[in-house]
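Researcher: We're teaching a course module on how sequence relates to structure. For the next exercise, students receive a sequence and then see the predicted structure as tokens, so they can try to spot secondary structure elements on their own. Here is the exercise chain.
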Amino acid sequence: MKLPKELSLGEIALLVGGRVEGPPHIRVSRLSTSPLLACDGDLTIAFDPKVLREISHCRASGIVVPEGVKTSLPTIVVERPLLALQKMLSTIAPKRYLPEPGIHPTAIVHPTCDVSPDVGIGPLVVVGPKTKIGRGTRIMSGCIIGGEVAIGEDCLFHPGCLIADYVQIGNRVILQQGASLGADGFGYVTERPSNMELRMAGIQELSDEPNPLIKIPQIGTVVIEDDVEVGSHATIDRSTMGATVIGAGSKIDNLVMIAHNSKIGKEAIIVSMTGIAGSVTIGDRAILAGHVGVKDHINIGKDAIIEGKAGVMKDVADGEVVVGSPAMPAREYFTQIAHIRKSPKIYSELKALQKKVAELEALLANHQLAR
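Model: And here is the predicted structure for the students to work with:
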């Protein structure tokens, strides 16, 4: 990636809060995404342990590394390379084409709305009755916002977001393309006990008679607190009663599903393809990796880590790391995996032992007959 202008390592160190080891006057004109593909004139960043082991092959003019890394290249040493990258990219990021303050002529904004004068509303946006939008917020093309929605200040909604009636959104919230907030929760009941209920009660005589699913009204809402980001095509359903809550500073990746009445704590991270069933509580700073599934009415503690593709079927304690399906403590899971991997060898040894025992039994029987 080409930098807006050539910069010296000394200038970059000042920008990212690092120190130069080597000539500070060396100038770079590009930022390379891969230390092992970088060449003369590039600056690159290395923090992955695998890459750091091969750093001697790097041909960049300069490299940003964490404390303790030794290399013959001119370096900028920082405490947190990813934070250094964040500072650098924030400085050189290209302009984003956001709506200018005002309402685009093709947008439909209900006359009862309370929209701050400096809000930017793009083409083909629809905003329903009695909705309030705080100052500095930008709403890009094709977003549809329902009635009596409360939106805070300095938010950014990318194209195609869907926000249903009564949703409450805090300040500095980012919604990526196609995010959906406030769809009805998935709740139904039958007039008579369903076959599933009969089975769970131990009754084996099931019925083929119609027993229609009756929709339970979903009269709650969704509350998105300050500084939350919701990824592209993620879905957060409204509660049956009360609110589905996403805590301040939490980050939700693309294609995540959060069902009705769930409560997500502050600064949690929920990664793509995760599905969270209804009435789940997730503590502050918990991390749910990709493709996690969480059963309804589960409590996940603060600072817990749920590894990728885990199936969470019971509560997870504060700070616990779980993996597998059904999820279990990581140490227990990997101990089981180690034992499973040893099973072919154990089986072979068992077969050999059985053969040896059979031979000894035959020798003993022959000896007794001989007597």
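Model: If you want an answer key for the exercise: The chain has a mean pLDDT of 93. The CA atoms of residues 39 and 60 lie 5 Å apart.
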